[in-house]
Amino acid sequence: MIERKKQMSRDRVSRLINWGHWFAFFNGLLAMIIGARYLSSVGYPETWYGWIYLTVSTIGQFSFLAFIAYLICLFPLTLILPYSKILRGLAAIIATLSLCILLYDTIVYADYGMHLSPFAFDLAWADLNALLHGTSYIVTPLAIITIELTVANFLWKRIDKLQKLNLGNKVIAFVGICFISSHLIHIWADAADITEITRFDETYPLSYPATARSFMESHGIDSSFQTNDEVKVLSYPTQPLLCQADTPTNVLMITVDSLRADMVGPKTMPFLHQYTEKNQSFTEHYSGGNQFRTGMFSLLYGIQGSYGDARVFNSTSPVITRSFQQAGYQLGLFIPETNLNLRSAQAMFNDFNPVIAKETNGSADADLHTVASFKEWHSIQNKPWFALVNLKAPENFDTPVGFLGIETVKADRNLTPAQKVLFNQYRQSLYFIDMQLQAILTNVASDTLVIITGVNGKMFTSNSDEAMRNLSPESIKVPLVIHWPNAIEAKVKYRTSHYGLVPTLMTHVLGCTNNTTDYSAGRSLLEPSKETWIYIGDSRIFAIYQQSEVTVIDRHGKYRIYDENFQHRLRKKMSAPELIEVMREGRRLYNH
After folding, report:
1. What whole-number distance in Å separates Cα of residue 501 and Cα of residue 485?
2. What is the DSSP string of 274-319?
3. Would you give the DSSP letter of residue 134?
4. Residue 282's beta-bridge partner residues?
């Protein structure tokens, strides 16, 4: 009798497990239907092999998610509570919650371009009214749980018939083939640079497709190529440009790598300090990044560094240089060799005629050649011109051999002994740059529009990883001085950023009448920005500078909040309204 009861119990559990597998498979199908909403954000495939990959990837991924949900939630309950009525009700509730979370994730992904995480959830929760419309958030869960209860009962009543059909192994084999095939296809696409496939990499939640690099490394094969980034349809500019310059004005833009705003003083940079006093200076100006690639990207493209990974910028040059070119300007670029290779977008300098300075003897020596090359080029120009001169010595704390600099001063006591040494060496490098600025501007006519700014700021460290992660004001607050022909000196005290330079030139030099949002994230520097925040960084790690706090966020959604001076970490929740605007600005060019 006891053995018979045990056998009946085992049979009941076995029947429930069988039922659970079919219930999970059905929910995998429902998840696929809901998951189709993700494709509205990234677009549908345009080739037959794209459709094949998307089909097997969808079947494999959502079936896998449904099975994992069953394994974690339902399977233990089957062993603890092997009663069909109770289990069917709990399964329907769990499945409904899971599908509602998936549905919510599709909404968040469409609006912010990211899947649910603590960061995304906080954003979405603060923006709940905008995300959830009407009464669908009430009706939909009721409809789902009705379907779940109906299917749970339907499958339970027919579980014996399904067992007799012997379809279980075939379904498992089919789903397994789809799952494995999707990863194999992705490995091939990654190695062959098939963007029609790799652009779906981050579309589905918890999706980590195998890459050629990971596959080869796991088999002990060295791989020397880079994996692809996600490719999306992006519009830049969003509307055709309408520009008509009245009187052409020559424009000289001088950008200095690692130029901190707080270091431009009468002792360290006497010429630039005096030049600042005589022209329009922006005392609260920020770069768009703490590195050359993000700083220069924000300066020339006028959009957030999060767009820098978009493959469209491998072939799309900035609207500012295209517009100067179309207006008949000669475009000259004077830049160190390594900076030309460090750019984040391959087409950033495509419209220029480059003059490249070798850095065999250091960046300071390259800067001397850059200055000499510009002066030679400038002397033979007979048409309107736009020149970009990039100087690099401060990035490497460099000065030329035999350079007689300025006397050292006492460094901030909060600096470490190594940082104090770098501080004074940095001052020597800035003094050298100051002399180069004077050499450049001596023969430039007063009717030339001159812009001097830092590409990024500088922290006193020789550790490149530490410098890359640091998003403090020292790393991104830079000077900006503009000499307008026939204008008087002025100090601008409201906050500005690199994003505003392109709109300023497009509007006031090239006569463009477009709304600045057609091609930039910024507004003209000559008027205070309406935004209360500035985006600093790229898609991997970035900071949001607000009025009284700084929020640093990594690509996984982890964030830390600091005070406005970046000196103390604040134990508080993030200010969601501004961050919601930031996320939408980072998606805006993809939605046109």
Report:
1. 17
2. HHHHHSEEETTEE-S-SSHHHHHHHHHH-S-GGGGG-GGGGT---H
3. T
4. 480, 492
Record the tokens describing residue 261, joined without a space.
């705003």
| CA dist., res. 589 & res. 306, Å (int) | 11
Pair 584, 131: CB distance under 8 Å: no
Residue 568 burial by Cβ neighbours in a 10 Å radius (0-12, 13-18, 19+): exposed
| CA–CA dist 194, 209 (Å, integer) | 14
Alpha helices, H only, 158-193: 159-165, 168-192
Over its length of 592 residues, how does the chain's per-residue pLDDT go in tens digits?
565 555 555 667 788 888 888 898 999 999 999 988 888 767 788 788 888 988 999 998 898 889 888 888 888 888 887 788 888 889 899 999 999 989 888 887 777 767 777 767 766 666 666 666 655 667 888 999 999 999 889 988 888 888 778 887 888 888 889 989 888 888 888 777 677 787 787 788 877 776 644 543 443 433 333 333 344 578 899 999 999 988 899 999 999 999 999 999 999 999 999 999 999 999 999 999 999 999 999 999 999 988 887 778 888 999 999 999 999 999 999 999 999 987 766 799 999 999 999 999 999 999 999 999 999 999 999 999 999 999 999 999 999 998 988 988 888 888 888 888 899 999 999 999 999 999 999 999 999 999 999 999 999 887 777 788 889 999 999 999 999 998 888 999 999 999 999 999 999 999 999 999 999 999 999 988 888 899 999 877 899 998 889 999 876 667 889 998 888 888 887 766 777 788 788 888 876 5
- Specify whether the CB–CB gap between 23 and 70 falls below 8 A: yes
Count of helix runs (H) and strand runs (E) in the chain = 22, 15
| Token pair belonging to 451 | 């812009």
Q: At what angle do helices 292-301 and 501-508 cross, to 10 degrees?
A: 30
Contact (CB, 8 A) for 26 and 151: yes
Kindly compute the dihedral angle of the four CA atoms of residues 210, 542, 523, 444, in this order, to the nearest 10 degrees.
-100
> CA torsion, points 216, 217, 220, 223, in degrees to nearest 10?
70
The conformational region for residue 285 under phi > 0 = left, psi -120 to 50 = alpha, else beta, is beta
* pTM exceeding the 0.90 threshold for the entire prediction: no
One-letter identity of residue 384? P
> Residue 391: beta bridge partners?
256
Q: What is the 3-state secondary structure (H, E, C) of 361-404?
A: CCHHHHHHHHHHHHHHHHHCCCCCEEEEEEECHHHHCCCCCCCC
- Cα–Cα distance for residue pair 279/485, rounded to 1 Å: 10
Hey, how many other C-beta atoms are within 10 angstroms of the C-beta on 575? Answer: 18
Separation of alpha carbons 394 and 373, rounded Å: 20
- Phi then psi for 535, rounded to 5 degrees? -90, 125
Q: What is the 3-state secondary structure (H, E, C) of 233-275?
A: CCCCCCCCCCECCCCCCCEEEEEECCCCHHHCCCCCCHHHHHH
3-state secondary structure of 411: coil
Give every CB contact of residue 24 below 8 A, 6+ residues apart in sequence.
Answer: 66, 67, 69, 70, 74
Number of other residues whose CB lies within 10 A of the CB of residue 508: 16
Q: Are strands 490-492 and 280-282 parallel, antiparallel or unpaired?
A: parallel
